[in-house]
Predict the 3D structure of the following.
Amino acid sequence: MMNIKPVSDLRNYNKLLKEVTKDRPVFLTENGRGMYAIINIEEYDRLKASIEIVEKLKEAESSGVVSLSDAKKRFGQ
């Protein structure tokens, strides 16, 4: 279940930050719309590394070094 809070809950940020865990971000809404996500730094690092890998694979594919679909098959994605 997603942990969704209004941005006004930041007034008590210590309590809000205790709810953030590695696998459970807190999503903040502003005027009823999703605006922000607070994630654990380990999760942020993992997501950033994943994006970098995908970008490198796309670069390799565009240069003809590797096929992205072959890479997905090889790594079971």
User: Anything to note?
Assistant: The mean pLDDT is 89. The two ends are 25 Å apart (CA to CA). Residues 3-39 form one domain.
